[in-house]
Write a structure and sequence with these properties.
CATH class of chain A: Alpha Beta
Strand content of chain A: 25-35%
Pfam families (chain B): Biotin_lipoyl
Distance between the termini of chain A: 34 Å
Radius of gyration of chain A: 17 Å
Number of strands of chain B: 8
Strand order of the largest sheet of chain B: 1-8-6-3
GO molecular function (chain A): acyltransferase activity
Number of domains of chain A: 1
Shape of chain A: globular
Largest sheet of chain B: 4 strands, antiparallel
Oligomer: heterodimer
Protein name (chain B): Branched-chain alpha-keto acid dehydrogenase subunit E2
Structural class of chain B: mainly beta
CATH class of chain B: Mainly Beta
Largest interface: A-B, 24 and 16 residues
Order of helices and strands of chain B: EEEEEEEE
Number of strands of chain A: 10
Structural class of chain A: alpha+beta
CATH superfamily of chain B: RNA polymerase II/Efflux pump adaptor protein, barrel-sandwich hybrid domain
Number of helices of chain A: 7
Largest sheet of chain A: 7 strands, mixed
Strand order of the largest sheet of chain A: 1-2-6-10-9-8-7
Distance between the termini of chain B: 6 Å
CATH superfamily of chain A: Bira Bifunctional Protein, Domain 2
CATH topology of chain B: OB fold (Dihydrolipoamide Acetyltransferase, E2P)
Strand content of chain B: over 45%
Enzyme class (chain A): transferase
Shape of chain B: globular
Number of domains of chain B: 1
CATH topology of chain A: BirA Bifunctional Protein, domain 2
Keywords (chain A): Acyltransferase, Transferase
Order of helices and strands of chain A: EHEEHHEEEHEEEEHHH
CATH architecture of chain A: 2-Layer Sandwich
Chain lengths: 233, 77
């Protein structure tokens, strides 16, 4: 099975954290069954934010924290996650990390004749300079976490890829929590996003093939990086 | 003698500043060398800051303050 299924996003995030802690090169493509909102632990720790988190949980949505940076991300059947644990040797910049994971996504999409770019997308969730965009709309958001081990630095590169838009209730809760966490950010807009389902709507078999293309593209890039690191050592 | 806690200058390429997103040990707490004591973030990348020595932590830059590569954000004595 290419996509690891988890009952909850908490389980998926925990698996990512375990791979990251192990410090070895690894790839994980995963999806959670239950709807949840995932946010950086740095945001979740804010004392003024606790009441908002409790409201979200009372509305029936799980709240999960993650170690990497960024904003709030909807999880559940709407989101496919790609995690790459990569060596972060000298000369490997944060831009290199983003190029690796965004490049893997762009290559996988190109197999289906979809052109992707990277850039910011105001009005999208978890916005940043390294979104994967198709026709100016956000398909995936990315973030990283870097830790130092006795053997050197290791990076966890993460992409959250929209398979389809969250259902209306899930979306509304995302908007409420996002506004509370980042009040100066633009309001989130559904039309700032695109999804795998809409991009491949005329060929459902492509939707089924996409995870395989993605993991192969990520594997190619991770292998090439490991080879470069080995040669540099 | 105090050992400075410095944001490493080789963590990222550009001159972007970072934000201290969390201190994971309190001011005046005893910390062990290599322990995770702080997290910083720039461009949606979270970096871990480890204690450079064992001793008493003194925080110079608080959570949510902006810092640059090479800045001293605290010390351990």
């Amino acid at each position: 099975m290419i996509i690891a299924p988890f009952a909850t996003a908490k389980d998926g995030v925990a698996r990512e954290a375990a791979l990251f802690q192990a410090g070895k090169p690894a790839l994980l493509l995963w999806q959670a069954e239950a709807q949840a909102l995932v946010l950086p632990s740095a945001v979740a720790r804010r004392p003024a934010f606790q009441a908002h988190l409790q409201q979200t949980q009372a509305a029936g949505y799980q709240v999960v924290t993650r170690g990497s940076g960024g904003g709030i991300v909807p999880q559940g059947a709407c989101t496919l996650n790609l995690a790459i644990c990569a060596p972060h040797g000298s000369g490997f910049s944060l831009e290199d990390g983003y190029r690796l994971i965004c490049g893997a996504l762009a290559e996988a999409l190109s197999r289906f004749d979809i052109d992707a770019q990277t850039g910011a997308c105001p009005g999208s969730f978890c916005d940043g300079a390294w979104n994967v965009l198709v026709q100016g709309r956000k398909l995936a958001g990315t973030a990283q976490r870097v830790r130092t081990t006795p053997e050197g630095r290791v990076a966890l590169l993460h992409a959250a890829i929209l398979l389809h838009l969250p259902d209306p209730g899930h979306w509304a809760e995302l908007c409420l929590l996002n506004q509370a966490a980042f009040p100066s950010d633009p309001l989130l807009r559904p039309d700032a996003h695109t999804t795998i389902a809409s991009l491949m709507s005329e060929a459902p078999n492509q939707q089924r093939s996409f995870p395989g293309a993605l993991i192969r593209a990520a594997e190619d890039r991770l292998s090439a990086l490991m080879l470069r690191e080995k040669r540099a050592a | 003698m105090a050992t400075d806690i410095i944001i490493p200058s080789d963590l990222w390429d550009g001159d972007e500043e970072c934000v201290i997103t969390a201190w994971l040990a309190s001011d005046s707490a005893l910390v062990s060398e290599g322990a995770l004591i702080a997290e910083i973030m720039t461009a949606k990348v979270q970096y871990e800051i480890l204690a450079p020595a064992s001793g008493t932590l003194s925080i110079a830059k608080a959570q949510d303050e902006v810092a640059a590569k090479g800045d001293v954000i605290g010390d351990v004595s």
